[in-house]
Amino acid sequence: MSDRLPALRAAIEKLLPEVDGVLGLRTGPAGIVAPHLFVKERAATLDALAIWPKEPVPDVLKKILKAHPTAKLGIVCRRCEERGIVEMAKHAQFSLENVTLIGLQCTHDEAVFCRCSKPATIHAKITVGTPIEGVPDSVTDDFLKLDRDARLAFWKEHFLHCIKCYGCRNVCPQCFCNVCALEDETWVETGRLPMPVPPMYHLVRAMHMTAKCVACRECEETCPAGIPLAIHFRLIARDVEAMFKYETGAVITQSPPQLLVLEEGEYERTGLPH
Amino acid sequence: MIDYSSVLSTCPYCGTGCGLQLQVLDGRLVGVLPAKNHPISEGGLCIKGWNAHDFVQHDDRLRTPLIRKNGKLVEAGWDEALSLVAEKLGAIKAASGPDAIAVLASAKCTNEENYVLQKFARAVVGTNNIDHCARL
To answer: Could you give the CA distance from residue A145 to residue A195 in angstroms, rounded to a whole number?
Structure first.
């Protein structure tokens, strides 16, 4: 990991004079890492530049750009974060025109940690590190070996432990609705734990993440109950790709299926078994 | 200059001590992120921690002490409020003894603050009547 740090610092230093700030990670007290906006007026803070653990930086970028819509910002982003940024721009959260991407290539160990199939950036013009191949997601693969009853039992067991912290929603770079269905009593009863079966909270979120999830796995990482949420989001993403030929964050000019009206014949009915 | 930084803090709600990053944008608190490599919470938070920033700049929050005068709460300075509390506690202690006073500590405070509070109860007031607010 350390070999990328000097190169990343050099890339940020080179970009800083041209932008209002570069969003990256900084090591703080007790070695704990957090997002930080590096600015040229305080370039010395780059001494504490960090790479890992990854943080939900696209969401921070959105927060800054909502307050400063005309600001020119750089952002250090991995592939999943790059995808997140592209999807947010497609959903009008901010304009990509004022955002410069510094692509940070993940290492094999990081890809293994995230069970990531696509760790190499594709949009960033500036990149740091060596692009690598993806790794298999054994957790999802193992889930797929289960039969229908075993899958239901698997999710029932996991969702039983949900404490409804809303962390998976809060941390998600693609959860940015002004009005959230998960705060609507029609779907999610306030204060009810354990979750009812079926757990509407998770089902609503699964539906809303369709053609939006960018596979960053932040939801899974922040879950205090250790629910392997990426499994269902990745399977939904697989189906969206099959049905709508849409991969989140891949093609900047391709509209997401939620923003289109598709006529019969323009999409495929795949008849996938779930 | 745009100013965005994270301030590491400890969740104020219970005694677990989860680590959280306060998101500060241009001097305003705009949100909370869990601290991923924090040794206690390891990147997780409960719903209280995720919303720990909400009350800080809330309009309903009291900004000065209030003293009830003629049945009405009136804004007061800290010196006046603390003097009044000291005077009343002193009067109760003089009239009924130190055990007429009890002190309730809080999980929202730090260890050090709670230490100071028990010291206040035992050494200043002179009572062992100190307990945790969760047993109210």
So the answer is: 26
Q: Which of A128, A151, A186 is the last residue of a domain?
A: A128
Min CA distance, A264 vs chain B (Å)? 43
Q: What is the CA radius of gyration of chain B?
A: 19
Distance from CA of A147 to the nearest CA of B (A): 31
Pairing between β-strand B28-34 and β-strand B130-132 as defined by DSSP bridges: unpaired
B108 is in which domain, residue-wise? 98-136
Alpha-carbon gap, residue A239 to A271, rounded angstroms = 10
Please state, in angstroms and rounded to a whole number, the distance separating the CA atoms of residues A247 and A212.
9
Domain boundary, last residue among A106, A128, A150: A128
State the helix-helix crossing angle for A200-208 and A230-244, rounded to 10 degrees: 40
**For residue B92, what is the enclosing H or E element?**
helix B78-96
Question: Amino acid identity, residue A105?
Answer: Q
Pairing between strand B4-10 and B19-25?
A: antiparallel
Q: Are both A14 and A53 inside the same structural domain?
A: yes
- Tell me, yes or no, whether B55 lies in a domain: no
Contact between A139 and A228 under an 8 Å Cβ cutoff? The reply is yes
Split into its structural domains, chain A has a count of 2
Residue B88 resides in a domain: yes
Task: Give yes or no for a contact between A76 and A8, defined as CB atoms under 8 angstroms apart.
Answer: yes
Tell me if B84 is assigned to some domain: yes
* pLDDT (tens place) for every residue of chain A, 274 residues total: 458 999 999 999 999 999 999 999 999 999 999 999 999 999 999 999 999 999 999 999 999 999 999 999 999 999 999 999 999 999 999 999 999 999 999 999 999 999 999 999 999 999 999 999 999 999 999 999 999 999 999 999 999 999 999 999 999 999 998 899 999 999 999 888 888 888 999 999 999 999 999 999 999 999 999 999 999 999 999 999 999 899 999 999 999 988 877 677 766 665 554 4
Question: B5 and chain A: CB distance < 8 Å anywhere?
Answer: yes
Residue A149 belongs to what domain range?
138-259
Three-state DSSP at B104 gives: strand
Inspect the interface and report whether the beta carbons of B4 and A37 lie closer than 8 Å. yes
Measured between CB atoms, which of A33, A63, A167 is closest to B44? Answer: A167
Pairing type for strands A21-27 and A33-38 reads antiparallel
**What is this model's ipTM?**
0.89
Task: Name the closest residue on chain B to residue A70, using Cα atoms.
Answer: B2
